[in-house]
Design a protein that fits this description.
The chain is an alpha+beta fold. The protein has a domain at 29-169: AOC barrel-like. 24% of the residues lie in helices and 44% in strands. The protein has helices at residues 3-26, 174-198, and strands at residues 33-45, 50-59, 70-80, 85-94, 101-110, 121-133, 139-149, 159-169. The chain has an eight-stranded antiparallel beta barrel with strand order 1-2-3-4-5-6-7-8. Strand 1 (33-45) and strand 2 form a beta hairpin. The longest helix has 25 residues, at 174-198. The termini are close together.
Length: 203
Amino acid sequence: MNLATLARWRALAAACVLGLGLTAAQAHPLADLPFAGQGNLLVFDAATGSGGWNGEIRAVSDPATPPALSFAVLVTFDYDATANRLHGRFEFTQADDLASSVFGRVRGGFTDAAGSLDAGGQLALDYDVRGGTGRYAGTSGFALSFLSFDPRADGDANYTEHGLLVAVPEPGMAWLMAAGLLLLAPRHRRRAHKTQGRGAPLP
């Protein structure tokens, strides 16, 4: 096998690696996931604004598709009433696979000036997905949602939530592509050097 053929094979392999990486990202089960859920929000300390909520979110999908994914939700937060800023941590754990979860930080605030932890209201939330476990290991992304909270609600839930989760695996294949290009570069440089010295390209 001559150098030109070897270079072509290496370029093809690098392209295949890149294609596999893109396919994996597109096929990620959380790539574009509308969701809805409910649960209970509790205020741990009204003076400091600390609290949390737990509940469930479910993927909103076509009834003709297989059963939707569902996740147990656990959030802890601090809320600054003066600035109307909420920030904290979250974890979404797949209900039928407790080893698989995504986690990160959440921030937001009430959409109405009258909203508060005492009176309730609607929170606009921004979830920053910073990692995962199990089948979601290496996941990053974000979710945007609206959470409607009523502290006076009776029953099993005092909030409902609707949003969209956009998460993809880390581009772990990208370094393989870069390595392939680096392998190609020395070959091309050596060929160019020999071409300049002999006046004609090598076969």
